Amino acid sequence: MAEAATGFLEQLKSCIVWSWTYLWTVWFFIVLFLVYILRVPLKINDNLSSVSMFLNTLTPKFYVALTGTSSLISGLILIFEWWYFRKYGTSFIEQVSVSHLRPLLGGVDNNSSNNSNSSNGDSDSNRQSVSECKVWRNPLNLFRGAEYNRYTWVTGREPLTYYDMNLSAQDHQTFFTCDSDHLRPADAIMQKAWRERNPQARISAAHEALEINEIRSRVEVPLIASSTIWEIKLLPKCATAYILLAEEEATTIAEAEKLFKQALKAGDGCYRRSQQLQHHGSQYEAQHRRDTNVLVYIKRRLAMCARRLGRTREAVKMMRDLMKEFPLLSMFNIHENLLEALLELQAYADVQAVLAKYDDISLPKSATICYTAALLKARAVSDKFSPEAASRRGLSTAEMNAVEAIHRAVEFNPHVPKYLLEMKSLILPPEHILKRGDSEAIAYAFFHLAHWKRVEGALNLLHCTWEGTFRMIPYPLEKGHLFYPYPICTETADRELLPSFHEVSVYPKKELPFFILFTAGLCSFTAMLALLTHQFPELMGVFAKAMIDIFCSAEFRDWNCKSIFMRVEDELEIPPALQSQNFQN
């Protein structure tokens, strides 16, 4: 009985909701019926006749002013709608209508009527969308002092946004600090330095941390048994201070490498000491975790310095050793640095071995993995590939595999081909990227464009096949083909990560909202009416009066097109000999 009563109540509720959805149509017909019934007491016909007489007395100047004002207002609305759409990606009028008018008209969210199973499925897809919209640290990020700042000095433009640098500050506080930093004065200073917004303040704090550490070591030397002058050099230095100076103060890669080597000496000593004490409590465990992050970061940046300075084989060896020593630290994505260095050495067999390990369905994908896999398969056929020959004889198995790999890569990140084919200009990559977004495409193309150019015919094969990907992806993007549906949050995040002078690539291309098209048409139509009324006031006045008479007179059903033209001819005093010819025309 309870289930039957619950089902009846749910059915009754749905019927009431359905009736309220269409209640406005019933109300509209009721209003029309009341107007028809009360047409005599309200003297509707007399009022329409008086309105028609008033409008017939208006001069053409009134119509010029009316249409001109309408054109101006609709033009202003069009400009505002276009600006709002370019900035926020949606129509202001549409957003207000959906947010405020829809509830008043009885609109109901369809998701509220879904069952628990569909809700669970939606929550899973939402969680996947959120994870794909997560901002990641760029594994190939440049050096601020030696590269980003030099770009600013030359061009006067800031390549990094405040949002991007703020994310980097949060990363530094997460990786390079711990709760016990207040016990050591140098670490306490660096903990504040990572939160500083002013670069000069951060650099000054790093120098202060090194000076305090040096003074403290000199004071502690006499207290150490059997101390000598050489023991001053064995005391620990502040590794994070050297990291900050190498990243932001060094103006060349060589200077940064020297500072990172000094940081390595200090960081390695701290890591070995904390490794021995990590099991003595949670505080020591946190220190060891921090020292591990510092050591991995230093070694990775030293490998990147060697790669920048042309010592690619040395860089590859350092990256391999680092991945063997710390196999569980995948947060730095060192394998992407290794792939880029191996491609520079043209060690394609080693690249394939790395891809076999990391291009797994259970591991997160990236543009580097997908496009490197496509490059290797394209390399096998690109030198002999010809679109004309392929259209005549069809694609071979190897060519089909290469095309499928390109389609897979383009589906993962559709922004990359335009940068590889040099259809869009490159900028310096940001310090953080959004996977499947424009920021990731810039970061990949910035370092891998040379590798694609080195493989003969690879860019030609990409140019001939990449647009075919979009024929396989369902539209609109409810579901993907090989990956999850393309997230809708990439444009907003990329606009925060990339500088303002860069035109953000948007996928899928958003269609212009209806209200922008409507206001554009209204503005153009009213502007044309204003121009015609100004140039031909008598003719437009006759047409306006004729249209008013059609809609306002009681005998509007007897009007037809012939009567309109006859009235126009009478008003303009057209000779009788030309009237029949004008009417036929």
From TrEMBL:
Compartment(s) of residence: Membrane
Protein species of origin: Heterocephalus glaber
Superkingdom to which the source organism belongs: Eukaryota
Residue intervals passing through the bilayer: 20-42, 62-85
Higher taxonomy: Eukaryota, Metazoa, Chordata, Craniata, Vertebrata
Family: Belongs to the ST7 family.
UniProt-recorded name of the protein: Suppressor of tumorigenicity 7 protein
Residue ranges of coiled coil: none
CC annotations in GO: membrane
